[in-house]
Design a protein that fits this description.
2 copies of one chain form a homodimer. Helices cover 40% and strands 14% of the residues of chain A. By secondary structure, the first copy, chain A, is an alpha/beta fold. In chain A, 53% of the residues are buried. The structure holds a DNA duplex.
DNA sequence: TTGTAGGCGTTATCAC
DNA sequence: GTGATAACGCCTACAA
């Protein structure tokens, strides 16, 4: 599927850039010295060191840093000076253990190949930036069993909240989370009874709207391509929305042109060719994600097909590329960064004590009619 | 710059998908019960509970889970049964504190907009998947000061190793890391004296090779576009490599066609138009990243420019889109997933005690000559 | 093979 | 406003 025209000239060897592993031998660390004669520990400066240096008790040093208002300004200044002089870095892990309050939250994404998920990640990372909570990342590879394992691992690591993708999860995942009693945010859809809260939109309605748009434009022989629905409840809902729109307008929904496809531009191209060979009368193809749709638009260009003259193409997500294709791609816009941001904010609010359970945030969607339909 | 042809029809209101926040009131958790009459804690099952349940001492339970070989099979079985019955999830944070051994590593990326960095992330996450270490993520937004803050935060959170992008860092970052004595891996370039180890390639040589390729193909009036070099040592090295190649072949390097550009397809399109208006005789443009180059190729299509007839275009990175453009983009291939994987593996090796400091892993590069040049 | 004692670095509790 | 004491949950060291 990949079109690599021309020769592929390796410069690695020419330019001395072949794989080299060299070790600068003498650069080993200086011998490790433990400040005190104790048995264990990093040898790292501790709060006790700071307290000693400042002539106060450890708890006062702790308060000076975490609850400055409870400490006399002079004392506080002494502690702050000691912190600076000793280059003290607090051990948040220890603090977290002592106060039994978490210091990180987790996000589990189904993939890092698709920019729609890294956009969500970006939104979440941004929202957490000044919160004091770190983000721990997991990739479930669209596998519920892997997701369950990740959830268990993250619980063991003491995360205070977890963000999941989609509404369908392994039973084990659900019982782990119920048992752990931590805030859970499901994203990308709006289950009626979320595990905790959820932020997303109606994949069914969005897909229905796009199918409706195609029908309105006069297309009657429509095909549908999505990811495998068995492992992806969003794709499943989009397929249902598409089917409902066709049924509502009395159009046939030919199973031979309702495809499941792997991910990628090449896969979109392949799906286009497959559909046009299986059913040449197809006048429009609705792809449930923009990467597939973009692959099809780019393939049409290579094949000399006119879009939408020979076949109309619609996508879903509104990735950056969509608006830059020729012709620009009709698609459904989803505010993915906003989704990630909202999900992270829900986690933060829950950690701050705001009532959380059952909240359902609908971020909506928007049909963007460009030139491929 | 964005080309949105056609109307933009919001379905949110039509389909009842407008923003809704509803709270399912009754779904609050059952009252929180603390197993024992103690003062603090989550109320979560602890190793002590498991030990009691199994009729052994806590340390035996600990060993049964972490060093099974040191425990009699029968005892181990009793502990395992207790773990299952109580749905015990270990507190790795506490274990980490007690053994003063880390349980997470950090990756700091300069951006989550560019897939080249999420590819690296994917490689790293993959390599860490079965390692027992979690990945904590930070986004520095190409800002050395933010990077320094993130490093400090991550050190406070007790990560065992840190992966950075590039070779240039704030002095504070360097002193923090030197002081912390934890493994650091720099990525995307090969500094002569890395902070710890590094995995990357010669940006200078790769860029030189691409410029050489353009010159070899007969182009003489070449322009160069990259990200702002002040905050990006890779872009700076690529610009130097380009300039050296031109100098070596006696070509003029016109400062008016050596541009710095923001990121994105739209920015690439703008750079193309800018260069052709500033210097219409330009016969080739070398973009230091594929997103800019792709934006230019797509813009050329819209503008009716022939590539490479009117202007040749070269990129850098070999993103997925590059090979699917029409014409397919000439670029420099970098194994980004391999880079992330190698970086993560270096961290793991260092954490396992393998000599680490000074190791420099060159992943090489490859000029992919496709049809835009 | 199993157990006892004590500590990892911090903070909650309660007293002064 | 400050401090002594104990606890967070687990593991290392040493002993039996």
């Amino acid at each position: 599927m990949r079109v690599d025209v021309g020769s592929s000239l390796s410069m690695s060897r020419l330019e001395g850039a072949s794989v080299i592993v060299e070790t600068v031998a003498s650069a080993l660390e200086p011998p490790f010295q433990r400040p005190r004669g104790n048995r264990r520990g990093h040898g790292r400066t501790t709060l006790a060191d700071v307290a000693r240096h400042a002539g106060v008790s450890p708890i006062t040093a702790s308060r000076a840093l975490n609850k400055p208002l409870l400490v006399a300004p002079e004392t506080r200044a002494r502690v702050e000076r000691a912190v600076a002089e000793l280059r003290y870095i607090p051990n948040i892990i220890a603090g977290s253990l002592a106060s039994s309050s978490p210091s990180a939250v987790a996000a589990i994404l189904p993939s890092l190949d698709n920019s729609i998920f890294t956009d969500v990640l970006k939104g979440a990372v941004g929202a957490l930036e000044r919160s004091g909570y770190r983000l721990v990342l997991g990739n479930s590879h669209f596998d519920p069993a892997v997701e369950a394992t990740l959830v268990e691992t993250f619980l063991a690591h003491g995360v205070g909240a977890i963000m999941l993708t989609g509404a369908r999860h392994a039973p084990q995942t659900q019982s782990l989370l119920t048992n752990a009693r931590i805030p859970v945010v499901q994203t990308w859809s709006l289950p009626r009874r979320p595990l905790g809260a959820c932020v997303g939109f109606s994949n069914f309605a969005a897909s229905y709207a796009m199918a409706h748009h195609l029908i309105e434009r006069g297309y009657r022989d429509i095909a549908f391509v999505s990811a495998a629905v068995a492992r992806n409840d969003r794709a499943a809902a989009r397929r249902r929305g598409y089917a409902k729109a066709l049924a509502d307008h009395g159009l046939v929904n030919d199973p031979s042109t309702t495809l499941e496809s792997p991910f990628g531009l090449a896969a979109g191209a392949a799906a286009l060719e497959r559909i046009l060979s299986v059913r040449p009368s197809t006048d429009a193809i609705f792809f449930a994600n923009d990467v597939l749709a973009s692959g099809a638009v780019l393939a049409a260009l290579r094949l000399g097909l006119r879009v939408p003259g020979d076949v109309a193409i619609a996508g879903f997500d509104d990735i950056e590329l969509a608006g830059h294709l020729m012709p620009p791609l009709t698609t459904v816009r989803i505010d993915r960064i906003g989704l990630g941001k909202a999900a992270a904010e829900l986690m933060l609010e829950a950690l701050a004590g705001t009532p959380f359970k059952g909240r359902r945030v609908d971020i909506g969607f928007e049909v963007i009619a460009r030139a491929t339909t």
